[in-house]
Design brief:
Shape: globular
Oligomer: single chain
Helix content: 55-70%
Strand order of the largest sheet: 1-2
Number of strands: 2
Largest sheet: 2 strands, antiparallel
Length: 289
Amino acid sequence: MTTATTTTRPGKVRGRGHRSPLASFGLHATLLVTSVIAVFPVLWVFLTSIKPAEYATTTDFVKETTFENYSNLVEDTEFLTWFGNSLLVAGLTTVLGVMVAATTGYAVSRFRFPGKRGLMWTLLITQMFPVAVLIVPIYNIMSSLGLLNEPAGLVITYLTIAVPFCAWMMKGFFDTIPREIDESGQVDGLNPFGTFWRLILPLARPGIAVTAFYSFITAWGEVAYASAFMVGDENLTLAGGLQKFVNQYGAQWGPMTAASVLIAIPAAIVFLFAQRHLVTGVAAGAVKG
């Protein structure tokens, strides 16, 4: 009696990470739709900024193109003054924010001192309060110090927002740097500040990039404090200046969209300088918070 032996070929084994054509199509379609959704508002603002006022609220983008909105914005308003005020406030906030957050994070990461735990809890708790709760007490404090309508008042206010978060992040980043580097600095005769400045800080560039970017964006795009603390065209920042284009009867979409495009340029430049360090800095700062 002969027994027939049936040989079955093993099915085709799909390689690791290999996707079917349908799954690949779905993934790329999803990415395409998401990209369009992300880019569309920015593109709409730019196209509106180069249209005449009578076409501002229409979808006719190619009938007539003009850059009058930009020229009128620069020549007929205090936009350049507002721009300069914002650059001053954001620049000071960035520099001071990086200095304070880096030194605070390093001190908490490396040294033991009375009140260390309380300090870290204080930095954490301050992030829990919304602007609506803080704006009145901070306004009263700035008023008593004579800092209302002064760039210094805004800088101090923005530091209270940026520094607690950045200090926590820098502390986590410094925790990832081996302590043996500090010990080698001490062997070479460096004091704690010399070790921090000459050895640790160069290794912390990704964390510093994230801190600088966050501090700049905090000051550059903030609206509530800038609108409440600053009055007068010569003292306004961009956040307050843009409100000049909106009244109870309507909005001047041409100048507003032109200003929005120009406002986005410095933020984009700062991001381009910091972007290669952003992912590394955020990931390292999140390892040991």
